[in-house]
Amino acid sequence: MNATAAHYNVLFLCTGNSARSLLAEALLNHLGGGRFTAYSGGSFPTGRPNPHAIALLERLGIPTAGLRSKSWEEFAAPDAPPLHFIFTVCDDAAGEVCPVWPGQPVTAHWGMADPAAVTGDEATVVEAFREAFRQLEHRLRLFTSLPMASLDHLALTTQLHAIGQSSHVHV
Hints:
The protein is of the alpha/beta class. It has 4 helices and 4 strands; from the N terminus they run E-H-E-H-E-E-H-H.
């Protein structure tokens, strides 16, 4: 990474851009301390944020203004912000097709189950969103603690893949 870069643009990608990637966008913008600007997009956006995702963020005091379900193609446009990191958060195990991003950003797959796909009573669905949030929070806290300026592209890629494989402790 560029040792002079003090600010990093991060894109989270998934299929529908209604839950996981939106949670990640809001959470990183909240946790990033001005060092990161997070965005999200989907390969087949639903067109609206999942109400459970928005409700969870609001309960936790994380800003939701401006969150919207959108296509990742917005970030491939010539006037899009330059991206330093791209994370896919779709679940390979569920047979989802994750978007592939060309170019030079550091990329990693942080697969996780889609809480929007969970069925059952309200408590079950709410818990699925909480679990997705906890997993993202764990990974993003590890990510934001990395010494970006002192890691080269390969070292960063290795660290990001390890974070994507990490689990969190249930509390």
